[in-house]
Design brief:
By secondary structure, the protein is mostly beta strands. The chain has helices spanning 7-22, 38-42, and strands spanning 46-47, 55-56, 79-82, 85-89, 95-101, 111-118, 127-135, 138-147, 152-159, 169-175, 181-190. The chain is built from 2 helices and 11 strands. Strand 3 and strand 4 (85-89) form a beta hairpin. Residues 1-20 form the signal peptide.
Length: 192
């Protein structure tokens, strides 16, 4: 078990890993490396989301309404934007579904990058957390996490199984029992 890890240490580690993963090397003169398809040449990394645009999802529009507890208790202290990151404190939020329109188009087969982390997960009794991203009601990515559990950093590269259009609804879903903190850093188009 990791024990307590200061927020700055996790943020620093996540930033360092993200920076290292984003470094590119240029092909040398005369190399045919990088002479890819037109699709590859036109790809530009871009954020799919803007954390300032998150809005709560009503039960009727929730792709995982079957996970919603009764009642949903997620007030102003439950989720907020801090340092341009989405932070969820499950001590004050027993369920969360947020939505916003996609800022970019992504073709099926292109790579979506997900950056997220959570601190140690604790609860009075063992439980299971569920975190997921949906686009237009279709599952893009998910993870189920046993509680109690150690802190974790997610740096996922997901091959999109479907096309995502500009303006398509992106939903971030989280439910978790206990006093835990989750932070969504980014959801981006990743280019080769």
């Amino acid at each position: 078990m990791l024990g307590f890890v200061p927020c700055r240490a996790i943020l620093g580690l996540a930033a360092l890993i993200t920076l290292a993963a984003s470094c590119e090397t240029k092909p040398g003169p005369g190399s045919d490396e990088g002479a890819g398809t037109a699709e590859t040449a036109e790809c530009e990394p871009a954020s799919i989301i803007d954390h300032q645009q998150w809005q709560t999802v009503e039960a009727a529009a929730d792709p995982r309404a079957d996970h919603r507890p009764d009642p949903v208790e997620c007030g102003i202290a439950g989720w907020y934007i801090e340092n341009d990151l989405l932070e969820i404190d499950t001590n004050y939020c027993n369920y969360l579904a947020l939505r916003q329109p996609s800022l970019v188009a992504i073709e099926a087969g292109q790579t979506v990058g997900l950056g997220m982390y959570h601190f140690d997960l604790v609860a009075p009794e063992p439980a299971l957390a569920h975190v997921a991203v949906y686009v237009e009601g279709q599952l893009l990515w998910e993870d189920s996490v046993e509680i109690p559990g150690a802190a974790k950093v997610y740096l996922e590269e997901i091959e999109s199984p479907f096309r995502i259009g500009v303006g398509d609804e992106v939903v971030f879903h989280l439910h978790n029992h206990g006093q835990n903190t989750w932070v969504l850093q980014e959801l981006t188009l990743v280019c080769p």
